[in-house]
Design goal:
Pathway: Carbohydrate metabolism; tricarboxylic acid cycle; isocitrate from oxaloacetate: step 1/2. Its EC number is 2.3.3.16. Keywords: Transferase. This is citrate synthase (unknown stereospecificity). The protein has two domains: 61 residues, Multidrug-efflux Transporter Regulator, Chain: A, Domain 2 (Orthogonal Bundle), CATH 1.10.1660; 298 residues, Orthogonal Bundle (Citrate Synthase, domain 1), CATH 1.10.580. Helices cover 55% and strands 6% of the residues. The chain is built from 20 helices and six strands. The strands form two sheets. It has a three-stranded antiparallel β-sheet with strand order 1-3-2. The chain has a three-stranded antiparallel β-sheet with strand order 4-5-6. The protein is globular and about 65 Å long. The chain starts with a strand and ends with a helix.
Length: 405
Amino acid sequence: MTPWMTLDEARKALDVRAQTIYAYVSRGRIGVSPDPGDSRRSLYRAEDVKALLRRKETGRTRETLAATTLFGAEPSLPTAISTFSGGRPFYRGVDVVNLAATATLEDAAQLLWNLEQAPGFPSPVDVPGSPAASALGVVSALPVGRTRAFAELAALTATGHSTRGRLPRVLVDEAAGLVGRLAVAFGAAAEDGRPLHERLARGWGLPKAVAALLRKTLVLAADHEITSSAFSARITASTGASLPACLLAGLTTFSGPLHGDASGRVRALFDEVEREGADAVVDRYLAAAMPLPGFGHPIYPDGDPRAAALMDEFKPPAAIARLIERVVALTGLPPSMDVALAALVARYRLPADAAFAVFAIARSVGLLAHAMEQLEVDSVIRPRGRYIGPSAAQAPDPRKARRKR
């Protein structure tokens, strides 16, 4: 088999539509390269297509079940936090889109953390002389943004207390403080007593109308079942690591361009549209069989209801509206939450990294919910490896290797 396949060959091998191939590419599961014989087309890595085909054909034996559970991107863990049903997301049985019509992130935390009342997200107050105080003193001098947010969590991780042997109410208080700290690190005003979306809007100098949009966005983005970042947070929690460690593990996973920072790829697409025009950009992508970032979602084949709910609240800039119209018309793929969030940032000229900041602040609530739920299971998550290297008989003898030198 040649190392590369055309779109038609890949589509026929997997018995799927072209849009599904594009989705596999956007999720990093099929490698893509320009066709050297025709710059308008793309080629797809044959080995990746074969691997996906093997997964489809593999029987569900104990060994293959363990392998596909992880490598098929479907880690199966019991959870009461969130799920999907009928093409819509739910938090503990509550429709998320309906919830976001009026709720705040504090309300969402009450639901996701299974509390009797909504928590506050206090601004950080570092005690002088505490183990993390000196490091936090240095870090807090950094400009607000992603670097400061991750650095503060890293400082707390280095000195944090294990979650083991601590009452749930104590962990909830710590979790609320972590969300508040993260928000302030991203630029939210340190004004306790106000809902977090208002503090974020005040810190960024935004009007009340935009604060209302932030409120809705934060609720829509607070959780999304067992994502790769939630899985990371759960693995960390299962070892008894501190809550800051759980949140940092989740957010570092979340920061990948195929996950929570997908809006960065969408923003780059918007930049291309601004330079070249929507029609030219879409035509170029489709001619090269390249997937358009942020369009289509494997969980929502009929459209991401979170994106629809958010985009009902504002009009994107004309060029972005034209991009969305053209992509939907030509591919049938509706915009995802990543497009909606990037469009919101563009429409109201939010700070450059605002899309990631809003998503990360919101998702920190969900990640902490998963970490605390995992503590109810008294065992470490320990996946088994499926060894594919040389057997012991095939391995080189290190003594012979030394004699050759």
